[in-house]
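Figure caption, in words: inputs first, then the predicted bound structure.
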Amino acid sequence: MALTFNSHYAKAFLRPNDLAGLEPSVYLAHDLLESKTGLGNDFLGWTTLPTDYDHEEFGRIKKAAEKIRRDTDILIVIGIGGSYLGARAAIEFLKGPYYNQLAKDGPQIYFAGNSISGSYLSDILEMCKGKRVSLNIISKSGTTTEPAVAFRVLRRYLEEQYGEAEAASRIYCTTDRARGTLLQLAKEKGYECFVIPDDVGGRFSVLTAVGLLPIAAAGADIDALMAGAAAAQKEYNLRSLSDNPCYTYAALRNAFYRKGKEVELLVSYEPRFTMMSEWFKQLYGESEGKDHKGLFPASVTFSTDLHSMGQFIQDGTRLMFETVVTIGDTGCDVTIEEEQNNGDGLNFLSGRTMTEVNEKAFLGTVLAHTDGGVPNLVIHVDRADEENLGRLIYFFEKACAISGYLLGVNPFDQPGVESYKKNMFALLGKPGYDEQKAELEARLLV
Ligand code: PA5
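Bound structure (5-phosphoarabinonic acid present):
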C-alpha cells in the first residue's frame, strides 16, 4: 500500500462509540459532496480534478516547464496562500529542502509575493543579478496586494534586463479564465496564460496550473502526480467509515475535537515535509476556522522540534492530538560507520542508516507522547515520490472537506481573511477607504 493510516496509538483515548456515533454524519458529508448540495458547492472542482482536467493546457504546462528548464537559471514564482504554498510544498517534498543548491539541470526556484517584506524581495533581486530569470505570477483574483506589488517590481526588473518583448516571453501568468486586472495585463503584454478554474478555491488548487507549472519546472513528473491523485480520488470516495482511511481520519479529528483536543499537531520526521505542513495548515485553518469553531492546525518537524516544543507536547497543557506523517523511502540515506576508538560512544549505531535511527526516534516518541496523554494518528507513505504526493494531497483535501461538513461550516470560503485587508487598505490611503482611515488611526498608538 502506498499510503496507510493507523489509529493504533489513539485507541486508548477513544470509547467504542466515538467513531460509530459519527458514521451517519460522515455519510451525510459524503452525500453532500457527491450530490454537490452542501455548503460551498460551487467550489467542488477539486474533487474530480485528477481525472477531469484540461489536457490541452496540461500539455502546454509541460512545454512551458521544458522551456523554463532550458532558458532559465532562476524561476521566481509569485503568489500567496493557495497560490503559493502547494507548489513550494510539493517541490520540497519531492526534491528536498536544498533543491536550489543541488539543482543541476533545471532552474533554481524562489518564491516571492508571499509577504510584504522589502528586504526579502530585495534579496531576490540581488540573487537575480547576472542570471537568466523567468517569472510565474499566480493570482486567481489578480488583485491580491502582496503578489501584485512583487510582480510590479520584478516585471520592471525583467523589462529593464531583456526589453519588453523578451521579458514577455519569460513571464507566465496563472489566473482566472475570464476576469481580473492580471488577465487584462497579461493579454496586453502577450504573456502565456494558464487557468485557475472558477470552481477550485486557492487552497485546493495545487493540482491545477497553480502547482503544476512550478512543480514541472523543478523537473518532477506531473503525470505521476496526477495518477497518484486519481487513484486517491477513487479510493477515498468509498462510502464507508471503516474501509475508507480518509473518512476515518476526518471522523477521528472530529471525535478528538469534541473531547476538547482543540489543536491538531501535524508531525513529520523529514525536513522535506516542513512546507507540506505549511500547506496543510492553510488548508485546514482556512477551511475549518470559522464561526468561532475549528481545530487549530499546528505543525512540528521532529526530531528538531523535540528539542524545543517536545517539552510542551509531553508535559504541558493537554490540548492536542498529533497526526504523524512518516515516509518510508526518501531516495537517499547516510550510513553511520564504525570508529575504532569509539570516542563519541556511537558504535552501537554502526552499520545502521540514519533512516533506521529516525524510525526509532518516531517509535520512541509516539510511545512517550501517548504515555503523556497525547493521542497519535499515523499516516505512512512508502516513498517521497510524485505518485504518493498526489495521493497525500487528495487524502488531505478530501478529509478536510468531510471535516468541515462534520463541523457544520462551509469549508470552501474564507470571509475572515478580508478584515486585515480592509484595515491595511484604509491605513495606506487606498481610494474609497477615507472614512475608515480616520476611524482606525484614532485607535492606533502611533
Ligand atoms: O485559499 C485561498 O483562497 C487564499 O489563500 C488565496 O489563495 C490567496 O489569498 C491568494 O489569492 P489570489 O490567488 O486571488 O491572489
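The two ends are 58 Å apart (CA to CA).
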